[in-house]
């Protein structure tokens, strides 16, 4: 008996990396899984059915249940068709793991409009389109008297918290995904839908730099380290909603996104001179993303 027996899940971008690890663990825990992947390169070019089908074959060989999907989740209609595929082929839908993404790294001064649009489209619109069509289905189920006990798991990034050099579009999309998840949690609460965001620090095609430390007993950046959290969030009785998690190695952090670093006031309206007097020297320079990656590696 698995913790996800009877659950139906869609995992986007599941042909490789973190998404593949998620699909394998969800299936191992008893879920029927739609393995969605366009099969393209890091820039989203050159679609192929092979990666998704390979994962489906691996899940089937291990005794699990899975079907492949090559839908483009950044396309509004194809996202709706993907939701319909899960319901038609597997009988229902309980979990959406939004994971698909691409990279078009470029500094702001050199960025092309098409590069910005492509990254925002796949990451942010892809999350939004899947969430929209899933929420519509679950709302209908709830109104008909069938509580869905559904879960959406969104994939964000440290880059969405602190930014990263050359990744304006990616960082912006990942920050937007946090807000999207919060809205989905608020709107879904009334009809049995939970929504959470997970920031994984793990080795992927998008960031292969997170390599295992030679001689270390534990690979901190193995993508499979993140999947147990996603599987827990997928459970019918999981209590979490509206949360943001940072997962890496053997650590999980629950992040408080609205903390206040300084709370200053004066009598009446501020003047520029007063603001300068109070804040000059008190504001810290943000760390680059590489600082956080190194910190995580040191904790392994």
Task: Please give the largest β-sheet.
Answer: 8 strands, mixed
- Which word captures the global form? globular
Strand residues, percent: 5-15%
Strand arrangement across the biggest beta sheet: 3-2-1-4-5-6-7-8
- What is the terminal separation in angstroms? 32 Å
Number of helices: 9
Query: How much helicity do the residues have?
Result: 40-55%
What is the N-to-C order of secondary-structure elements (H for helix, E for strand)? EHEHEHEHEHHEHEEHH
| Strand elements, count | 8
Sequence stretches where pLDDT stays below 50 over 5 or more residues: none
Radius of gyration: 20 Å
Structural class: alpha/beta
Question: How would you state the average pLDDT, rounded?
Answer: 91
Record keyword descriptors for this entry.
globular, 9 helices, 300 residues, alpha/beta, 41% helix
Describe this protein's structure:
The chain has 300 residues and is α/β, with parallel strands linked by helices. The chain is 41% helix and 14% strand. The protein is built from nine helices and eight strands. It has helices spanning 17-28, 50-61, 76-90, 113-143, 158-162, 168-188, 227-234, 272-279, 289-298, and strands spanning 8-12, 32-36, 65-69, 95-98, 150-155, 193-200, 244-248, 251-255. An eight-stranded mixed beta sheet has the order 3-2-1-4-5-6-7-8, with helices on both faces. The two termini are 32 Å apart. 43% of the residues are buried.
């Amino acid at each position: 008996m698995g913790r996800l027996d009877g659950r139906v899940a869609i995992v986007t971008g599941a042909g490789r990396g973190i998404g593949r690890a998620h699909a394998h663990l969800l299936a191992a825990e008893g879920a029927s899984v739609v393995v969605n992947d366009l099969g393209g390169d890091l820039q989203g070019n050159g679609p192929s059915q092979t990666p998704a089908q390979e994962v489906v074959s691996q899940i089937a060989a291990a005794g699990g249940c899975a079907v492949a999907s090559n839908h483009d989740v950044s396309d509004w209609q194809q996202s709706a068709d993907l939701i319909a595929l899960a319901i038609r082929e597997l009988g229902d839908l309980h979990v959406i793991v939004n994971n698909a993404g691409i990279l078009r790294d470029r500094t702001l001064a050199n960025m092309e409009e098409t590069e910005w649009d492509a990254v925002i489209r796949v990451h942010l619109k892809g999350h939004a389109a899947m969430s929209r069509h899933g929420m519509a289905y679950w709302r209908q189920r709830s109104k008909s008297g069938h509580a869905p006990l559904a879960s959406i798991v969104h994939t964000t990034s440290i880059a969405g918290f602190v930014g990263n050099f050359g990744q304006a579009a990616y960082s912006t999309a990942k920050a937007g995904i946090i807000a999207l998840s919060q809205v989905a949690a608020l709107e879904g609460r009334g009809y049995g839908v939970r929504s959470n965001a997970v920031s994984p620090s793990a080795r992927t095609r998008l960031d292969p730099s997170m390599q295992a430390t030679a001689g270390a007993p534990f690979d901190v950046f193995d993508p499979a380290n993140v999947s147990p959290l996603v599987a827990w969030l997928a459970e019918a009785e999981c209590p979490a909603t509206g949360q943001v998690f940072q997962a890496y190695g053997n650590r999980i952090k629950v992040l408080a996104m609205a903390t206040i670093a300084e709370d200053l006031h004066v009598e009446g309206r501020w003047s520029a001179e007063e603001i300068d007097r109070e804040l000059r020297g008190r504001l810290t320079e943000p760390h680059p993303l590489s600082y956080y990656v190194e910190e995580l590696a040191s904790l392994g």
